[in-house]
Structure formats: C-alpha cells, structure tokens
Design goal:
The chain folds into 2 domains: 1-37, no CATH class; 39-84, no CATH class. It has 4 helices and 2 strands. The protein has helices at residues 2-13, 19-32, 53-64, 67-81; strands at residues 41-44, 48-51. The protein has a two-stranded antiparallel ribbon. Helix 1 runs antiparallel to helix 2 (19-32). The protein is flat, with a radius of gyration of 16 Å.
Length: 84
C-alpha cells in the first residue's frame, strides 16, 4: 500500500494526472499504513488503547452523522462542475 500511495503521488506531481485528487489520496495512503504511526489507535501505559485520529473521524463523521461522504461528494462535484 505504501508503493501505491507513492505511485499516486508520482502521478499527481510528475505526470499531472488530477493532482487535486491523487495527492491527498497518496499522502493519506502512506500515512495510514506507516507502522506504529498512531493514526488508528495509540497504546498508552495509563489509559490503555486510546483512539487515534482516523478512529475519531470515523466515529464523528461517518458513524454518527454520515456527514463526511456528503461533504466529499459535494466537494468533488464542485471541482468537476466549476473547472476552467
């Protein structure tokens, strides 16, 4: 998955294929798959397992209100519709 993230960043920067979409996707793919990054959960000696940012975004943005997919589709639709 790290190689796929690197490939997406390469396509965005060097080949200029949809850099507004491929750059964040590649960067996110690399960050989430780094070993021991703490993006999903973190181990604390006192508290035990503490949820990370990805878990928090899922609970707040998708599981609780389903707002993230709507914002994503609105943003992509606006980028496609209002192009030069």
């Amino acid at each position: 998955m790290l190689l796929i993230g690197g490939l997406l960043i390469y396509l965005a920067l060097v080949k200029d294929f949809e850099p507004a979409l491929l750059m964040p996707m590649g960067f996110g793919a690399i960050l989430v798959n780094l070993p021991f990054s703490g993006a999903i959960d973190q181990q604390n000696e006192v508290l035990g397992s503490v949820p990370g940012i990805i878990d928090w975004l899922f609970k707040v943005g998708i599981h609780a209100s389903e707002a993230m997919p709507l914002l994503l589709f609105i943003g992509i639709g606006a980028m496609i519709d209002f192009g030069p």
